[in-house]
């Protein structure tokens, strides 16, 4: 597909994310989306296909990017604490930059059916396992104290919940906020000498 | 209103929360709800009124309970760390017990209009201020180190996000999980002597 096709598709997904975040997936019609992007139903179909495809693309894209970042960190950053910091900074930056997409992801992914839903859930589990691996390794390496089994859920919650409040024009950058949050936990988790 | 009226109303709200959590607010019709609770449209209206009233009741009820608990703790528990622990335990227990309601709250409250939406937002802000007050007081009292401005969002995120995963039949009780999470943060926040 051409660059122009990709650019139009990206634009449709971006506008759709904003509409879905504002009015909900079920509350937004294909006609609303067409009006917002200036395309008729046929052209929309050309770029995206069904409304559920749009939801799937919105929900899967940032998650896939975060998994790519996590895969890369797993290969390049051997230190558990530094890897956590890399995961946290990238996630906070991504949520701040794509807040509409993450809002749709958290609110609406359950509206996906069958294989698409399964793939999103599998993607989330894969992403969570990257965080869990870093926590587990930190314990094995003697950086962290023994951690509760569900700690990974708490840590991820700290960051994921930011889709409700984070902005790009706040006093602190997303990376600074990520560092602040992680410091609070890490200092608490760090094995006392 | 009579006890029977209240009991029926509670049952309608409970079933509605489960349906909304499963199929979404927009994806659930009044007819679906009527079938699930065995009431016709007229009887449903008698107990609840509009579909938006149901969403409002579901969204506001647990939040109101948590604000009541927080108000009580603010009066009775002078120690900041103990107050945080009380807030955290009550919230985790409530989310585990009313997971469907919290799922609806987080996913769907934006579908509320005008005054109802404003009241939910005000209720959330009031609840958040209870946590913020406890954190701020802990700093003033020399229990915690100076904390980042957004710390309260991170701490609340840890707990709120549990609507996605917590169960009442896990190996740990909601209170134990709350203690684990808070320990990780508090030990990190505690002023070093």
Automatic annotation (TrEMBL), chains A, B:
Keywords from the UniProt entry: DNA-binding, Repressor, Transcription, Transcription regulation
One Gene Ontology MF term: transcription cis-regulatory region binding
Entry keyword annotation includes DNA-binding: yes
Database matches in InterPro entries: Homeodomain-like_sf (IPR009057), HTH-type_TetR-like_transc_reg (IPR050109), HTH_TetR (IPR001647), KstR2_TetR_C (IPR041490), Tet_transcr_reg_TetR-rel_C_sf (IPR036271)
Residue ranges the UniProt entry marks as DNA-binding: 29-48
Plastid in keyword set: no
Transmembrane segments: none
Pfam family name, one: TetR_C_24
HTH tetR-type domain ranges (all copies): 6-66
Cited PANTHER family: HTH-TYPE TRANSCRIPTIONAL REGULATOR RUTR, HTH-TYPE TRANSCRIPTIONAL REPRESSOR KSTR2
Protein name according to UniProt: TetR family transcriptional regulator
Source species: Williamsia limnetica
């Amino acid at each position: 597909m051409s660059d122009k096709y990709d650019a139009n598709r990206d634009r449709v997904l971006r506008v759709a994310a904003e509409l879905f975040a504002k009015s909900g997936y079920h509350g937004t019609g294909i006609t609303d989306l067409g009006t917002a992007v200036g395309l008729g139903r046929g052209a929309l179909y050309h770029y995206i296909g069904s409304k559920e495809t749009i939801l799937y693309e919105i929900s899967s894209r940032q998650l896939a990017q975060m998994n790519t970042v996590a895969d890369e960190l797993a290969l390049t950053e051997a230190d558990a604490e530094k890897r956590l910091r890399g995961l946290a900074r990238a996630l906070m930056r991504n949520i701040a930059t794509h807040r509409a997409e993450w809002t749709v992801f958290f609110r609406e992914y359950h509206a996906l059916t069958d294989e698409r839903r399964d793939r999103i859930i599998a993607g989330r589990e894969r992403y969570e396992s990257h965080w869990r691996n870093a926590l587990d390794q930190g314990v094995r390496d003697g950086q962290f104290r023994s951690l509760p089994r569900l700690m990974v859920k708490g840590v991820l919650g700290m960051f994921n919940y930011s889709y409700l409040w984070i902005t790009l024009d706040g006093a602190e950058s997303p990376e600074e906020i990520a560092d602040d949050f992680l410091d609070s936990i890490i200092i608490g988790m760090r094995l006392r000498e």
